[in-house]
From TrEMBL:
Keywords: Membrane, Transmembrane, Transmembrane helix. The keyword Membrane applies. The keyword Membrane applies. This is Uncharacterized protein. Residues 1-20, 145-209 are annotated as: Disordered. Residues 172-187 have a biased composition (Gly residues).
Amino acid sequence: MTTSSASEPAVSPSREAAGGASGQVAGRALLVVAALIAAGTAGFELARLGGSSDATLIVGSWRTFGLIVFAGLFALVAWRPTSYPGVLELSILHKVAVTLVAVNNTQAADAWGVVVVDGLIAIALIAGYLLLGCYRAWKPARTAARPSAKEQARQDRKSSAAGGRTARPGSGAQGGSESQGGSGTPGGDASQGSGSESSGPESSRPQSS
């Protein structure tokens, strides 16, 4: 008897996002846009580093290379939304914090530029995070090849029961009939036959008075 596997089919965590297929496309597009904004701003800042003073060179370099790193991270998450737990959460925290600092200090140099660039990146990241269901990256992936422990125990019970039912007819009924036919009945007939043969001559012998 063959048992059919009832294990659940593999489901990609990213496919369970709230937006479905259209949400996948929109979420990936938003992350790509965020990566392009970060890369474009990094190129603009890199061009400005040549004319920076000693007071702003280190700060400008930090922001420039940080934007390059962020652009790469956004592209990686857009490629595999549920393979990098914590990356998008930390990126959202950084961009929101920088935007809030710039909003509260509009008198600082380039404050409005930071508000526009980092604010747009933060909005795109939050929307992409929700559409792609990137929070599912913290959950282990389910596989179809390995059934659950309960299902495995059920399959083991079915296979053992099937093996017991196929083993009983060959060893019980047939073996018993062979033992009865081979040893019991023929042996009993032979003993009875010999007894009747031995008593035959004695019964025909004349009695003495």
